[in-house]
Amino acid sequence: MSKQTHRFIISIASNHEAEQHVAEGIRMLTGSVTSLTLTQQLWTDPVNSPSPNQYLNQLAKGTTVLEEEELCRYLKDIERHCGRLAHDKSSGIVALDLDILEYDGERRHLRDWDRDYIRLLMAEDTWHSL
Predict the structure, then answer these.
(1) Is residue 23 situated within a structural domain?
(2) Are 104 and 6 in contact (CB under 8 A)?
(3) Residue 12 CB coordination number (10 Å)
(4) pLDDT tens-digit profile of 21-37?
(5) Which pLDDT score is estimated for 51?
(6) Which residues, in sequence order, are bridge partners of residue 11?
């Protein structure tokens, strides 16, 4: 019996060694997802952060056989692999942040959908495959 396939959209962000961490996160993400497509990358200024470092942001969408809870755990494992530490958030250091914005058509992280860069990247009509 084959597992059900689920659709998702994930936000990707980093403000510390950003290009390296985003690239590594995407590389690791391909291990448990299929049909992965990405938006362009977009640099944004920090909001409510003690760090002045800009964020590199990108969106990814694809399919997976992982249930939502499993996908969330997998994303947290990727974040930790890329150097994300719990205490870094208080200092504004974000090695890598991966959040599920949508899973099987249901929106998550509702406040994020109002962010300018999310709206801009979601409106892109040219997501590219890896």
Answers:
(1) yes
(2) yes
(3) 25
(4) 999 999 999 988 888 99
(5) 83
(6) 59, 99
Tokens of 82: 């890329």
Residue 1 belongs to some domain of the structure: no
Specify the 3-state DSSP secondary structure of 130.
Answer: coil
**Residue 15 in contact with residue 51, Cβ under 8 Å?**
yes
Enter the tokens of residue 28. 């690791």
CATH number at residue 73: 3.30.70.560
Residue of higher predicted confidence among 118 and 88: 118
Flag the least confident range among 10-19, 45-54, 98-107: 45-54
pLDDT digits (tens, 9 = 90+) for 101-118: 999 999 999 999 999 999
Within a domain: 40: yes
Tokens 């599920």 identify what position? 100
User: Beta strands 42-44 and 55-64: pairing type?
Assistant: antiparallel
The total number of structural domains that make up the chain: 1
User: What sign results for the dihedral spanned by CA atoms 70, 72, 75, 76?
Assistant: negative
Band of pLDDT at residue 1, cut at 50, 70 and 90? low
Q: Phi/psi zone of residue 30: left (φ > 0), alpha (ψ -120 to 50 degrees), beta?
A: alpha
